[in-house]
């Protein structure tokens, strides 16, 4: 049999008997056939070489004993690295000194025969070369080679495993997986949605006697279909690992298509009563959703990481999160807590702040207590944040507050002495100060952002090492409506927006306030799940009372009739005996990135897009020729 | 507590202790809380009523004993049917004579207290009314109510269960589930694809100094991503329950979005050799794919239907399927086989047919043998098919062939006598005759279509009852290229098309013929899975030799450079040590329709679209205003 080291085999070839990851000393003496990718040769002598052969399950060491130069096996040296081969040979236990405990390290296979299945002739880089990781663009363009790296293929494998744990757990809990449509209706306010023109059915829609183009839209989440499904009563507990879509400028590490673990349950609680034992901290409804997620996340960490999580996660209110940590997704793994120092101020200052509805808050770093963060703190000193910083020295002990540019308050000598005493301030401390509205708004405060910045700097310097155990946290009792979300303002045009979405139920204690028009006082039955300071999911109890939903649309959000129209079917479904219901969605990509300990979700997606939404492997998005567009009834604006 | 029979509860309500499907005599005496939908009252006396309460798990009978008219419980009679309620009460074993074995038929719950959760005030129809099924349009518009019907919700539940079996089986077999992109690249020939315009990144693409619109496309299948994934070596066995999209005129029971069970495997066989024991009938490669699917389908039927399927399914070649059944997806549950009568013709007629490359074939119905089909046969007689029919009577015994309009052959008296004898024709028989090209083309022949028509008529009449056991069948050895597919011709413009897709490998026995330009003689390593005459899936061994793939693109299919461009990354991946690989995709919707014994896939999809691609619940597709389109750089053709 002659060898053509550059011609793929296109004939029947020997069937593999084992994978490259499974042979052990128990197989010694067995004749095996392995298939896989050939890694670089290591020549032991003129007559003997080692070749590792790799497949997705592992690596096996091949031993080649060459006879004369015409020997069939000698040709293996001419086969390019990363080619696929089938080899036949016998399993041997390795000589004692070269045995390894990992993988197939106890054995080697002495090769009798090989078949070149497909030569690697065009490698832009060698993925098995762990020494040099080529640049990101090249790896993105040849993603199918980058995926050959174990670091990435391990992530893909782990993702499949976690998806399986999720499904097993939810099925076990009585959930049904139901697919909801991806070709949905565009919404008037669909600011970030993808449209999908269709050629079909166009002739039925006419304007001035002419066909008009028709569009579906891809969902940003299965929110409406899943609520309708639960309203139907067909399914008591729904879940789906669902694809969602968002056409937006590449924010940090987002993808235009992403995956959610989406679930919804009928007959969830509507706030706490005596039948819910943990009602002390969790005062919104949806206890059942909480319990499912805690069980689910617990099983994932148990099975994937071997870590036992607490059986229930800490709950804090939005208000507490904003007050103590300055963030609605606080990283509670470290302290550096914010304190409201208003109560320690003299009464004159207190009442002037109170009249303005403001407070003054501080992060106090004491050298004695905050060792890990001191150098990061100094670094912040020289940054933009420094305008809110007061480093206490002997000389400014009695005017650090007045000197702070962000505060604008005057204190007398005595008042300052008293304040220092109350706060326990001494020379060498650093105080970061901020004056803000007492009622927190939005996702973070100035000190909350600073707190994260100090921790990141300390982490980068190696001074602070976050604990390995994950910190899960529920945040509840968000304001139901907001005017402080710039992302929503361009649709709201000065009206109130829903902090999350318009279907979130108010806390029942606040229903009266809502109907009385005290919109800013209404808290929602919403819950966010936060892990290590990253929001990994959120959900809520939904409005099931059609009149209440209509009131929210019309009176609170002041939607126009056309804005309301796309919710008509939901309103009607509520009027047909919809059960109280609620749910949640977790970001699967983000969850996987955390489990794979990688900073970017691109590392846990088989074929991701760049931050700009471009796919450099498949070369999309791309221009489409005019004739093709014409079939959809559309043309470029600049023709 | 006062009752407002039309106001939903928006306060904490009692937590359910059990579902409506789980109570048994073992619960007798227990105080329970149930939540669900109230079904119509059945009054036993002035003081006692029965109400069934239903949730997705079942129905429980409630007993209401009313005191005086002011009694709280009396108000239950005013609650509209299909409202959601929470009831509290005690479980009793029913009096012996009213006990039923099904569901919760042994018990009833005597109600102490109820909470109206949400009244049903706007019901366009009552889904629990099994007597009258309202018209399809109304049910589609209010799908969320139609889903409340047990017939539909059972299908949704079964679909979730089957998806779970699929995943369990494939995970157990070592498959990984990997999500592939839905926002992909449009292809030049993308005749049926959906385009997705995007606002992001437009400014980077310019033509004549103007931004040009950019588009993704939704995949008709994950074919290219899954092949690239396998080429990467990251995954040895891939699967995905994948959403796919097709923008086409509503053919019979198709959906613009549909679901496939998609899989692909590395290192599949490339045709039979001695290591494959069943090589006698399955002569293409991909034995491993076959084995996985037979195991998978076997487990589904075992677990869902309690039916044990054969451990391997019958295999027939395309040629045999076309010859004996006139179809590439033959229904082999009944005989009515087609026979080639050319060999029985006199030699003169035979050679004239042979010169033309034609044959004459027949279906012969004998009253003695085809009892089930005789009345259907008579019915066909009066239809358009009658022009190929010869009913044998005493008077036409010797000219039935010559008289048949579809044949155009003359036989002498003696020749006819001999033919009758050879075929065993006697008076009263019916012969359906057809003259066709000897080499079969496309998906069916005239007699193949007639065969199905007769069976359908016989089935409709109740003369023929198909067996309950499912008949699975593999069809292999299809021609790799075709000119007989009208669906493809509008892209091919007279060139050869791939019968399935251009990545299908030729049978290795036919590679030489392919390179020699004998395109019509090349059979592909393709396999279709057919169930009861319905194609439920298909797959193939893929080309892994880049030169062969390039030859197919350029020399056989004669693709232009721009047509080839979208395959460049695949060609390159093949050059980087791609393993031999193959896979398959099964239509999940069709599979579920068969398992749910419903003729339409709409019954197994939670929120389906009409045959015309319209969603009358969500009201899509819909027009989009010009300003919104402008952001994507597109405008209507008729502006």
Automatic annotation (TrEMBL), chains A, B:
UniProt KW Lyase keyword: no
Molecular function (Gene Ontology), one example: aspartate-tRNA ligase activity
Any GO CC annotation of this UniProt entry: mitochondrion
Entry-linked SUPFAM superfamilies: Class II aaRS and biotin synthetases, Nucleic acid-binding proteins
UniProt record, GO biological process: aspartyl-tRNA aminoacylation
HAMAP family reported in the protein's UniProt record: Asp_tRNA_synth_type1
Record protein name field: Aminoacyl-transfer RNA synthetases class-II family profile domain-containing protein
UniProt organism field: Rhizopogon vinicolor AM-OR11-026
């Amino acid at each position: 049999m002659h060898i053509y080291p550059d011609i793929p085999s296109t004939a029947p070839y020997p069937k593999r008997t084992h994978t490259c990851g499974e042979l052990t000393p128990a197989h010694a003496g067995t004749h095996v056939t392995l298939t896989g990718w050939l890694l670089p040769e290591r020549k032991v002598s003129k007559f003997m070489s080692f070749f590792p052969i790799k497949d997705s399950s592992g690596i096996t060491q091949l031993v080649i004993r060459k006879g004369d130069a015409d020997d069939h096996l000698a040709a293996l040296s001419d086969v390019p690295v990363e080619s696929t081969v089938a080899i036949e040979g016998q399993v041997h236990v390795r000589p004692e000194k070269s045995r390894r405990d990992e993988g197939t390290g106890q054995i080697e296979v002495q090769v009798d025969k090989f078949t070149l299945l497909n030569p690697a002739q065009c490698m832009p880089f060698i993925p098995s070369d762990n020494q040099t990781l080529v640049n990101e663009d090249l790896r993105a363009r040849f993603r199918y080679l980058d995926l050959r790296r174990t670091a990435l293929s391990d992530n893909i494998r782990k993702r499949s495993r976690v998806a399986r744990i999720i499904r097993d757990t939810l099925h076990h809990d009585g959930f049904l997986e139901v697919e909801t449509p991806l070709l949905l209706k565009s919404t008037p306010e669909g600011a970030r949605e993808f449209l999908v023109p269709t050629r079909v059915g166009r002739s039925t829609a006419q304007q001035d006697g002419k066909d008009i183009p028709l569009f579906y839209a891809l969902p940003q989440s299965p929110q409406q279909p899943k609520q309708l499904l639960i309203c139907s009563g067909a399914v008591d507990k729904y879940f789906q690992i669902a694809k969602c879509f968002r056409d937006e400028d590449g924010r940090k590490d987002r993808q235009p298509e992403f995956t959610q673990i989406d679930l919804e349950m009928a007959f969830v609680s509507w706030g706490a009563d005596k039948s819910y034992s943990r009602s002390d901290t969790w005062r919104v409804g949806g206890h059942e959703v909480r319990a499912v997620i805690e069980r689910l996340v617990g099983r994932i960490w148990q099975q994937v990481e071997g870590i036992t999580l607490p059986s229930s996660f800490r709950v804090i209110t939005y208000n507490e999160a904003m007050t103590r940590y300055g963030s609605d997704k606080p990283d509670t793994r470290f302290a550096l807590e914010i304190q409201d120092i208003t109560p320690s101020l003299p009464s004159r200052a207190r009442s002037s702040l109170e009249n303005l509805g403001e407070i003054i808050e501080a992060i106090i770093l004491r050298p004695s207590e905050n060792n890990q963060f001191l150098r990061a703190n100094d670094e912040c000193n020289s940054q933009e944040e420094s305008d809110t910083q007061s480093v206490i020295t002997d000389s400014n002990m009695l005017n650090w507050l007045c000197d702070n540019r962000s505060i604008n308050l005057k204190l007398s000598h005595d008042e300052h002495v008293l304040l220092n005493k109350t706060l326990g301030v001494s020379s060498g401390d650093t105080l970061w100060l901020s004056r803000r509205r007492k009622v927190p708004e939005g996702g973070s405060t100035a000190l909350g952002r600073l707190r994260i910045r100090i921790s990141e700097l300390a982490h980068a310097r190696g001074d602070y090492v976050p604990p390995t155990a994950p910190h899960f946290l529920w945040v509840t009792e968000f304001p139901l409506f907001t005017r402080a979300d710039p992302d929503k303002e361009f649709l709201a045009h000065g009206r109130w927006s829903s902090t999350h979405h318009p279907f979130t139920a108010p806390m029942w204690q606040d229903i009266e306030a809502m109907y009385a028009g005290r919109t800013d006082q209404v808290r929602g039955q919403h819950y966010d799940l936060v892990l290590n300071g990253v929001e990994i999911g959120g959900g809520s109890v939904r409005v099931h009372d059609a009149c209440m939903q209509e009131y929210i649309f019309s009176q609170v959000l002041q939607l126009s009739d056309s804005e309301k129209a796309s919710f008509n079917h939901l309103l009607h479904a509520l009027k047909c005996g919809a059960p109280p219901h609620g749910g949640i969605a977790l970001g699967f990509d983000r969850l996987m990135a955390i489990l794979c300990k990688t900073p970017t979700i691109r590392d846990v997606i088989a074929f991701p897009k760049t931050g700009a939404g471009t796919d450099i492997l498949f070369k999309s998005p791309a221009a489409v020729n005019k004739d093709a567009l014409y079939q959809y009834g559309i043309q470029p604006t600049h023709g």
